[in-house]
Design brief:
The chain has 165 residues and is α/β, with parallel strands linked by helices. Helix content is 29%, strand content 25%. It has 3 helices and 8 strands. The longest helix is centred in the last third of the chain and has 22 residues.
Length: 165
Amino acid sequence: MLYVNQYHIIFAFILALGIITIIPSVFADTFQVSIIPGSGPSHYCSETATCFTPSILNISPGDTVTWTNNDNVDHTIVNGLPYANQIGTIFDSGTIAPGKTYSFIFYNAGTYKYSDKIDKWMVGEVNIGPIQSSSAVPEFGSIAVLVLAISILSTIVVSTKIQVM
């Protein structure tokens, strides 16, 4: 005989909580930023704002930015601008060798200016705004979490009653 006890309820709660926690990461995106060839030894890219392509990104909380070093010299990406007192307090890539990458996940909304710690004329910006809805993913609003939790619990209770009969 199968019956619902406290362990079934705890399991259902943990399962629902796990699904709710995973949902935002499913919709997170990865954005690519290229460190252009020749940006290290030359100030030219700073005049055209093309050291990083794109030099300004607009993303949502939870999205990842991956910088790829397409130059032939090392680069170090840090938050902050070279003339600021605090650089690298939020992220610091360490040395990115030619052909290598560095990724950072932005969780908090705001504007993050960044620069190259080695070649100080190289600057860019990441703007993290509210989560953008995609046309491919419908917007369900805050009620979706409640509906999901109720659906999971209802399924467990109904299946348990059917097995008891």
